[in-house]
Write a sequence for this structure.
C-alpha cells in the first residue's frame, strides 16, 4: 500500500511525519528519513493487529433532514399563499424605510 506522508520541520533538530488522512499516525526523528522510517514501523505494527475496511453508510433521508433542519422543514410553506407577493412588497418597503432612517441618524 502507498500512503501520502506530510513531513514538517518544526525545529532545527526535529522532523515530524504524519500520514495524510490518519491524524493519529505520526512519528518524530532527527532527520526526515528517520521520521519517515519510524512512521513506516508504526504503520507496520498497526497493520499486524488490524486492517483497513471500507463501509457504506446511509445518507440522511429527506424526512430525517426535515426533522433536523427547520429551514428545510418550512421550505415552501407559502407557495400557495396568494398574498405572499404582497407581503414581500411590504417587507421590502419597510426595510427601505428602516435603512433610510438609519442613514439619517
Amino acid at each position: 500500500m502507498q500512503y501520502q506522508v506530510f513531513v514538517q520541520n518544526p525545529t532545527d533538530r526535529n522532523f515530524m511525519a504524519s500520514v495524510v488522512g490518519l491524524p493519529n499516525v505520526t512519528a518524530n526523528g532527527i532527520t526526515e528519513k528517520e521520521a519517515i522510517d519510524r512512521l513506516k514501523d508504526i504503520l507496520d505494527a498497526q497493520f499486524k493487529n488490524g486492517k483497513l475496511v471500507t463501509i457504506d453508510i446511509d445518507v440522511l433521508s429527506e424526512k430525517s433532514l426535515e426533522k433536523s433542519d427547520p429551514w428545510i422543514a418550512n421550505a415552501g410553506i407559502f407557495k400557495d399563499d396568494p398574498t405572499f407577493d404582497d407581503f414581500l412588497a411590504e417587507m421590502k418597503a419597510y426595510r427601505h424605510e428602516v435603512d433610510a432612517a438609519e442613514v439619517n441618524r
Notes: The first strand starts at residue 5 and ends at 11. The longest helix spans residues 84-103. The two ends are 67 Å apart (CA to CA). Helices lie at 32-49, 62-68, 70-73, 84-103.
